[in-house]
């Protein structure tokens, strides 16, 4: 399978290769590099009774990676499956359920069909890992970040499109960068990794250094919307799909 340049010099374990071979045909926006980050974090917390929360499941590409990486854990998938051109409504839910069946992980996944913002305030169940890939507007992301309250100290928060979406990045700049709850660890493409731990000045500086890359991605999105593909290629983007 093809690997992005960032992973060309990195040995990918055979068991991850098998996991991604199952997940890769599923529709969605998760690169092999990003799937490997999900896989490593899910493996790190896997134990009987452990819980992983995923906000935004779409057709189940990331859900399958998490469930296969953590066979002793439960993945709670929170997604309303609302209608709309980007979401697909009940048709997407049917694909999600079929993909879980095909991957043989139905018994490891609990679906919560609801908006994450509606369920958060009444949520009491602790979990070990949080993956956020829900609605990308500023207000929803701001609310989704509050799910981290239920993580243990040192628990990981993975946020997709953290440096390719205006709404997500603005939410992180407003609430995470000056905050005291999450420290920036690194990223796989635009999938950012945070830990529930008080950030140092070095952590904040490392986060700030990602912002030029975010500006570049937003500019490429504008060029793609205007169909100025040659200019996007000059910026190093050789695909008609958005950078993520």
TrEMBL record:
MF GO annotations: methyltransferase activity
SUPFAM superfamilies to which the protein is assigned, alphabetical: S-adenosyl-L-methionine-dependent methyltransferases (SSF53335)
Protein name listed in UniProt: Class I SAM-dependent methyltransferase
Key words, A-Z: Methyltransferase, Transferase
GO-annotated biological processes: methylation
Gene3D superfamilies: Vaccinia Virus protein VP39 (3.40.50.150)
Species annotation: Epidermidibacterium keratini
Pfam families named in the record: Methyltransf_24
